[in-house]
Amino acid sequence: MQxxxxxxxDTATAFAHRSTSxxxxxxxxxxxxxxxxxxxTGTVMTNLALKMKLPVKGIIKKTIFNQFCGGESIKDCSxxxxxxxxxxxxxxxxxxxxxxxxxxxxxxTKEEALRVIDFASTNDHIPFCVLKxxxxxxxxxxxxxxxxxxxxEIEKTKLYNCEQRVNEIIHKASSxxxxxxxxxEESWFQSFIDGVxxxxxxKYNKERPIVYNTYQMYRHDMLDRLSRAQIExxxxxxxxxxxxxxxxxxxxxxxxxxEMEYESPIHGTKEAVDKDYDEALKFCMKHIDRxxxxxxxxxxxxSRLLAQLMEExxxxxxxxxxxxxxxxxxxxxISFKLADLGYNVAKYVPYGPVEKVLPYLFRRAEExxxxxxxxxxxxxLVKKELRRRKSAS
Length: 393
Prior knowledge:
Blueprint: H1 11-14, H2 20-33, H3 36-51, H4 57-68, H5 78-86, E1 89-95, H6 103-120, E2 128-131, H7 139-146, H8 153-175, E3 179-182, H9 187-204, E4 211-216, H10 222-235, E5 240-245, H11 250-259, H12 270-286, E6 291-296, H13 300-312, E7 322-327, H14 332-340, E8 345-351, H15 358-370, H16 374-392
Parallel strand pairs: 1-2, 1-8, 2-3, 3-4, 4-5, 5-6, 6-7, 7-8
C-alpha cells in the first residue's frame, strides 16, 4: 500500500480490540471532553468529592481512567499490554503519579522506574521506558542551574544525585536491552535536562540509540536545537535518539513569558508548529543512519508523511530506528492502522492509583478540549464504528 493512501478512517481496524460496551464508554468520555464547561465542572466536582471522601473512585475508574490508563499498578497493566501486543502495538509504561518533591520522593520514583525495567525486560511488547526528570530532582534547582545562578554545595549535591538517579535507571535499562525516553518539560529548565540527556547519550549511545531526548516542536527554536544536537552527536561519535512531539505546556509557557516580560518560546500559530514538526521528521529521516526516531503524534498528516519518507528512503516498516507513538485511549485509528500495515507502533500506557493519576487525567481532559478538533475527531470515529457494528448485526 502506498503511504499516501493510508486510510485512517478505517474504524473496523482501529477498534477491533475494543468491545461495544468499551466504545460506548469512549463515546461518553469524548462527548464530555468536547465541552470545556463540562471538563471544568467535572474537575472541580471530582476534587471536591474526593476531599469529602465520597465514593466516586469507581465512577472515575469506569470512565476516564479506563479510557486513558492501563491500570493502578505495573501488574494491572498486563492485560492491556497483552491486548495491544496481540495487534502488534507495543507499550511504553508511564508511571503518571506526581511524587513528593523531596529526596525521598525522588528516590521512590527512581525505584518505581527500576521496577518497570525489571517487568519490561521479561515482556517482548515493551521496547521503551520513559523518564520525567522533574520526578527525579528539584525543578527549582534545575532552573537556578540553567540561569547560571550561584548554587550552594548542598544544592550542587542534590543536582548531582538527580543525574545519578537518571544514570542508574538508564544503566539498568541498557543492560536489559531496553531504550529510554526522557520527557520534555518547561522551557525554563529544559536546557538543564538537555545537558543531562546528552551526557547520557555520549555514554550509552555509542553503538545504537538507547537514550532519546524529546523535542517539543511548538517552540520556535526547536528545529535549530534539533539540528545542533545532531551535529554534536556526530562530532562526538554517538547516535542521537529523538522523540518528536508538538508540545504539552503551551498555556503555561505563554503565561509565564507574559508575566516575566520575555518573548514567548512558543510559535504564534498552529500552522507554524505543524510545519516545523514535519520539517523535523524530514531532518531526522535524512540523518536516520546516525539516529533513532520516535514520532509522538496524533496528527494523521504527519503520520502519513513519515510513512512516505520511510518508503522514499527504502526504510523497512519494522526498522527499529523508527517508531510511531500515541497515547493510550487516543488516535487508535492511527496506531492500529499503522500496526496492521506492519510499522513499529507504541502506545504510552499511563498507570498509577486512581486518586494519584487524577492530575494527569485532568490534564488529558483539558488538552483534549484545547487541541483543535481532537475530541470531535475521536468522537466521530467512535460513533462511526458503533453505527457500523449496529448495521452489521
